[in-house]
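Sanity check

After download, print the first record. It should look like this:
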Amino acid sequence: MNQEVYHIPALLPQCLEAMNIEPCGIYADATLGGGGHSRAIASLLTPPGHLYSFDQDIDAIERATPTDVFTPIHGNFRFMANYLDFYGVEGKVDAILADLGVSFHHFDDASRGFSFRAEGPLDMRMNPQASLSAASLIADADVSRLTEIFRLYGELKQARRIAETIVAERAKSPVDTTTRLVEVVSRHINPAREKKELAQVFQALRIVVNGEMDALREFLGAALSSLKPGGRLAIITYHSLEDRMVKNFMRTGNIEGKEDKDLFGRSSSPIRPLTSKPVVPNETEIENNPRSRSAKLRVACKL
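Expected structure tokens:
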């Protein structure tokens, strides 16, 4: 695999250990991104071992070079099972990794509009060909919808006030750049928590623009069907919403966390967590890669 790394992979040694890599095994990286995790996995493989890596961003795919042990696939990870079936390995995968974080490249490229730190169009699309952008979402959504978005996906207590201000301000001039959005919402941001709360505003919009919660729900089901019995699922989350979904799924086999039991009181979950608590970065990793600070790795085994 020949790819320029533009994303420092979080919890890399822990991920490789969790996946229990064997040279001739079949693996999937659901989130290719900058290629750090994929490169490390592919380096441990020899034919017929193979890694299939997915990304909906064509930029990530174009940076990756197929090899005899590596196939990059341009597609959303929610459709993983379909793609793996096409390659004849659905239900035969030894381990699947998903890093749900946003690549450095997305945050650092102002033209993608993911960061409140730089001037750029209010875009936030992981897939640049998608129709919905953050700007169009803000232009069309009413106060109730925006309130729901900021409260549910940003977990902001002042969601209603932010939504009302956005609707009032967009009537004066479009809210279609990152700096314009920051200007509009700043009056409702606690100065002592400015970076955190602005990040929550941007996170909420990004989640909706990219349908991240629905995609994660579908991916979890696709991952389970793609793994062989005994196969491992390793997922890195970065905020409480996705972490709760992953935790529930790994414990009960569904995102609601409802545990089904048979007549003898035994759990009928098709998956079992291998970590009682999430694996988190140590101080050295956080110092070298501050963006890994909120990373949580959970691992489970298909029964």
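If your output differs, re-run the checksum step. Summary of this record's structure: The chain is about 40% helix and 15% strand.
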